[in-house]
Amino acid sequence: MAYGVGGVMSHLANFSLSGVLGVMFLAYVASFVGYTGWGYLLARHSASKVTPFIMLVPVIALVVGYVALKERLILWHYVGILTVLFGLRVHLLGGRWFDKRG
After folding, report:
1. Distance of alpha carbon 65 from alpha carbon 51, whole angstroms
2. What distances in angstroms separate CA 54 from CA 33, 44, 67, 84, one per listed residue?
3. Is the distance from CB of 59 to CB of 85 less than 8 angstroms?
4. I need a surface site. Which of 1, 17, 31, 73 has the fewest CB within 10 A?
5. Which Pfam families match (predicted)?
6. Phi first, then psi: what are they for 14, rounded to 5°?
7. How large is the average pLDDT for residues 88-95?
8. What are the DSSP calls for 22-87, one per residue?
9. Which pLDDT tens digit goes with each residue over 37-77?
10. Which residues have a Cβ under 8 Å from the Cβ of 97 and sit 6 or more positions away?
11. Cα separation of 81 and 88, whole Å?
């Protein structure tokens, strides 16, 4: 949402300690954990096996928001989650999806 120059200046002038701590957490802690985990996986597995799982980031964000912050999910959130999970399943199974031998 665009706040305009006045809205942005108002937000900058009225920031809180919890807001600053939240930004610092995202900038340092969450980024460190994310990049460390990503590097760990890429060091042990090929990029073609690891990269598709990046699609789970918005799914995890929705689930964490629902569980931790009591955010309300609407129908389109569920449709998006199922679409991502289905796409990941198709990618992982590849041609074996239709293999009748099981």
Report:
1. 23
2. 14, 16, 21, 10
3. yes
4. 1
5. EamA
6. -115, 35
7. 84
8. HHHIIIIIIHHHHHHHHHHHHHHS-HHHHGGGGGGHHHHHHHHHHHHH-PPP-HHHHHHHHHHHHH
9. 999 999 999 998 889 999 999 999 999 999 998 999 999 99
10. 89, 90
11. 11
Task: Compute the mean pLDDT over every residue in the chain, rounded to the nearest whole number.
Answer: 86
Residue 92 has pLDDT above 80, yes or no: yes
Contact 80, 58 (CB under 8 A): yes
Calpha distance 97→100 (Å, rounded): 8
| Amino acid in position 64 | V
Q: pTM here? A: 0.66
* Alpha-carbon span 53 to 87, nearest angstrom: 11
Tokens of 31: 């980024």
